[in-house]
Specification:
With 217 residues, this protein is α/β, with parallel strands linked by helices. It has helices at residues 17-24, 47-64, 71-85, 143-150, 196-215, and strands at 3-6, 27-28, 95-97, 100-104, 110-115, 119-121, 125-129, 160-165, 169-176, 182-185, 189-190. The chain has a domain at 52-100 and 116-215: tt1808, chain A (Alpha-Beta Complex). The protein is built from five helices and eleven strands. It starts with a strand and ends with a helix.
């Protein structure tokens, strides 16, 4: 009988990096040349972009005075404005909001099933806040969940990219399925660090352009 697990709940049921490694032969590549897309020098922000990022940062600290920010707050106050600045809500990008996704293991004994938390851009960029977690929750604990979602990428010939956001911290992921599943991680970016939000925006814009380029083939 096939076992079905909700991805959003499966961490407690065994959805760990070890589980994904053993089930999908997934490996972590730490060499810088595997994930160069987050390491470039980005153009200087325009005055309007800098003002918008300053507003996001100021609003975060204003809300944080009342305590930790839950998932919906992270999406509304942090993630959504960044995606808007990156242009992902406008043509020529295509977004799918909270589609059902499914991961089937090669053994046929287990199926992971869940819903993407925010959106998918052009099938290649997966962006979400940590599901039902507070801003104090470690991003590292969300990596298995993110990779499980990304393993459902229908465009297996092209890399997929993800962004985990807890409100305060940001982490980019890259997953390549060919010739075998491999993933890489960016450094952690933090809203407390001057310039980090600008780097996050630059990476999002760069990944967006990559998704448009590969979508043409």
């Amino acid at each position: 009988m096939v076992q079905t697990l909700a991805i959003s709940e499966a961490i407690s049921e065994g959805l760990t990096l070890k589980y994904l490694r053993e089930s999908f032969n997934l490996s972590w590549v730490q060499e810088p040349d595997f994930f160069p897309e987050w390491q470039s020098e980005w153009p200087t922000l325009t005055a309007a972009q800098q003002q918008a990022l300053d507003r996001i940062r100021d609003r975060y600290f204003h809300q944080l005075e009342e305590g930790s920010m839950l998932e919906n707050g992270v999406k509304m106050m942090i993630v959504s404005p960044l995606l808007d600045l990156a242009g992902f809500y406008d043509p020529p990008f295509r977004c799918r909001f909270e589609p059902s996704v499914e991961v089937s293991l090669d053994t046929g004994e287990t199926t992971l099933k869940g819903r993407i938390d925010t959106l998918v851009v052009n099938q290649q960029i997966w962006v979400w806040g940590l599901e039902a977690k507070r801003t104090t929750f470690s991003l590292s604990l969300g990596i298995p969940q993110a990779l499980a979602y990304m393993l459902t990428n229908p465009q297996s010939q092209q890399p997929a990219y993800g962004l985990l956001c807890s409100g305060e911290s940001f982490l980019f992921l890259k997953l390549s399925l060919q010739p075998s599943p491999q993933y890489g991680l960016s450094q952690h970016f933090n809203i407390l660090n001057p310039g980090d939000l600008g780097q996050v925006l630059g990476i999002l814009q760069h990944l967006g352009q990559l998704s448009l380029t590969t979508a043409e083939f």
